[in-house]
Design brief:
The complex is a heterodimer. By secondary structure, chain A is mostly helical. Chain A has one domain (1-257). Chain A has helices at residues 2-17, 19-46, 55-75, 82-88, 91-96, 101-108, 115-131, 138-168, 181-187, 196-205, 213-220, 236-257. In chain A, helix 2 (19-46) runs parallel beside helix 7 (115-131) and helix 3 (55-75) packs across helix 11 (213-220). By secondary structure, chain B is mainly α. Chain B has one domain (2-282). In chain B, 75% of the residues lie in helices and 0% in strands. The model of chain B has no long low-confidence stretch (mean pLDDT 88). The chains are: A mainly alpha, B mainly alpha. The A-B interface holds A 21, 24-25, 28-29, 31-32, 35, 38-39, 42-43, 45-51, 169-175, 177-179, 182, 185-186, 189, 193-196, 198 and B 37-41, 43-44, 46-47, 50-51, 53-55, 57-58, 61-63, 65-67, 71-72, 150, 192, 194-195, 198-199, 202, 205-206, 211-212, 216-218.
Chain lengths: 263, 285
């Protein structure tokens, strides 16, 4: 444990040492989440409802998704650099150390500059919760806290799964982005916006509907136009756990499959 | 001391045919370079297509929610075309991810570019045109062919729109190259271009019309944006030309704005490059 802590401290001090550049990064990182919110506002400038929800209700979904994605991206998003590690053979250095591979990869370059983005995501989420006219009950307060945490876990698992593809498919390029950044885009809007097999695939087969849509509906007390019962939103942590189990399995398989490039 | 430079004096009135041949050779080289990344190309086309579905559903839901026949001049079929051709164009104009020049500057390899008997701006432009040609075949076609299978799309009714669209895409590619070159060239002064790069990525996406058609914005914002910045010319103009939201004279007007920006930016690139070369001499001695 102490070794991991040392890795993290080393990272922090090296990133803080260039103070001006760190400050610029902090500010710049806010913008990508800010843009998601601006996009929603612009879209609601030309329409009154999106997938059956009004602006404040839709913002709960966007806020929850932004909060979960930005945090997961900061903590786990770096795992996508594994394509680089595998291609250049630098992954061997990670494996020969007496530490576990995944935590090392994550801590080797933890992007603390993304803190600002996670904070903005949380801010948008809190604002949306405050303005959406939710009738608060103790159960809903609990869900409001648990759901974004489950979202972080779910996106984290998604990052690990898509990164593991690199063990089999070194030149996978932008492939993983379809499910990580694509998942963020998908969960920023009500699932009722999508339809057909595309919705089935992303929302239910991959599980993205449980990141923000169903928890938000449960908080808002709005029935699902697709027809799933009200308690669906409470399944979010279970879906996150299932995704984590799958991610662990695929990562282990990948590690076993890894053969060094030898360069 | 202004006579001391690292660059070879260039022949002023070189044979135009020879120059064209050089440009063409560089273009072919650019094309071939990208055709070697086959797996990454497939992965990229797949991702572009997934994002096509995501964006298309959202914009169609906006159209449905508005309850009117058109939103900001687009009917649902036009919005679908806007999204799917937009996903294809993304890699043709190469909005993101080009850092070749910045990398060569930070490693010092750029000095080798200066020794070549061809202006670096022309050199990189020729390579970029080749890259764009490859992208037309491998990255524009997949989303443009897949989208219409799942969504009703709008195809131009006027024959003149097709050549105008092609012209507009060519101008957008050159224009985008100019912007990317300038962002990269900031490395001559800054060395680390992460700041300018983030700024460019965000601004070009949102003000180029990638996340939503710019006509969704209030009118007082659109005019100045289109005239005073090159960003709408990158993305929004070719797509608007294609879906015929305007009559022909206005299409021509938008393309004229694009052309003016393209020429202006290329001149600026050459100017910046010349300045940078002088500075390099001072630094490198």
């Amino acid at each position: 444990m102490r070794a991991y802590w040392a890795l993290l401290r080393g990272q922090a001090s090296s990133q803080f040492s260039y103070r001006a550049s760190f400050a610029v990064d902090l500010v710049a990182n806010v913008w990508s989440t800010a843009l998601d919110v601006v996009t929603i506002l612009v879209l609601f400038g030309v329409t009154r409802t999106l997938g059956g929800l009004d602006l404040h209700q839709a913002l709960v979904i966007t806020g929850m998704s932004a909060c979960a994605f930005a945090t997961a991206d900061m903590l786990v998003g770096n795992v996508e650099r594994i394509t680089l590690y595998v291609r250049t053979g630098r992954f061997d250095t990670v494996l020969v150390r007496p530490l576990r591979a995944l935590p090392q990869l994550l801590l080797l370059d933890l992007p603390l500059r993304k803190l600002s983005r996670a904070a903005l995501g949380a801010g948008v989420y809190l604002f949306a919760l405050g303005t959406a006219g939710i009738t608060w009950t103790p159960a809903r307060v609990l869900l409001a806290i648990v759901a974004p945490v489950a979202g972080v876990v779910f996106f984290g698992a998604m990052f690990v799964i898509t990164a593991s593809v690199a063990f089999w498919w070194t030149e996978s390029g932008e492939f993983g982005n379809a499910f990580t950044y694509g998942g963020r885009d998908f969960t920023s809007y009500p699932v009722s916006v999508y339809s057909g097999w595309f919705r089935t695939a992303f929302a239910y087969t991959l599980g993205f509907a449980f990141v923000s849509y169903y928890p938000a509906l449960a908080l808002l007390g709005v029935p699902d136009p697709i027809g799933l019962p009200g308690w669906t939103g409470w399944c979010a942590p279970l879906v996150a756990l299932a995704a984590t189990a799958l991610a662990t399995l695929i990562w282990r398989l990948g590690l076993r499959h890894y053969t060094s490039t030898g360069s | 001391m202004d006579s001391l430079t690292a660059t070879v004096p260039r022949t002023r009135y070189a044979n135009a045919a020879a120059e064209t041949r050089t440009f063409w050779a560089l273009t072919v080289a650019g094309f071939r370079r990208y055709s070697t990344y086959r797996q990454a190309t497939v992965a990229g086309a797949f991702t572009n297509t997934v994002f096509g579905f995501l964006r298309c559903y959202v914009l169609l839901a906006v159209a449905a929610g508005a309850g009117t026949a058109t939103v900001a001049g687009y009917d649902p079929a036009r919005l679908a075309t806007f999204v799917w051709f937009g996903q294809g164009l993304l890699t043709v104009v190469a909005l993101w991810g080009w850092t070749d020049l910045a990398q060569r500057i930070s490693t010092g390899d750029v000095v080798a570019d200066l020794l070549r008997p061809i202006n670096p701006v022309t050199n990189y432009l020729a390579t970029d045109v080749g890259r764009a040609g490859h992208a037309v075949l491998t990255r524009l076609l997949p989303p443009v062919l897949i989208g219409p299978l799942f969504f009703p799309i709008y195809l131009p009714h006027r024959w003149s729109t097709w050549p105008l669209f092609v012209l507009s895409v060519v101008l957008a590619t050159v224009l985008c190259f100019g912007c990317r070159f300038l962002v990269n060239a900031s490395a001559y002064w800054l060395l680390d271009i992460r700041g300018p790069m983030i700024l460019w990525t965000l601004l070009s996406g949102v003000l180029g019309g990638l996340y939503f058609p710019l006509r969704f914005l209030p009118d007082w914002l659109i005019g100045p944006l289109w005239l005073l910045t090159p960003l709408p010319s990158l993305f929004q103009t070719p797509l608007d030309v294609l879906v015929e939201v305007d009559p022909t004279p206005r299409q021509l007007g938008l393309i004229a704005i694009q052309a003016a920006w393209a020429v202006g930016l290329l001149l600026l690139c050459r100017l910046v490059q010349r300045r940078a070369e002088r500075k390099l001499v001072v630094q490198g001695g």
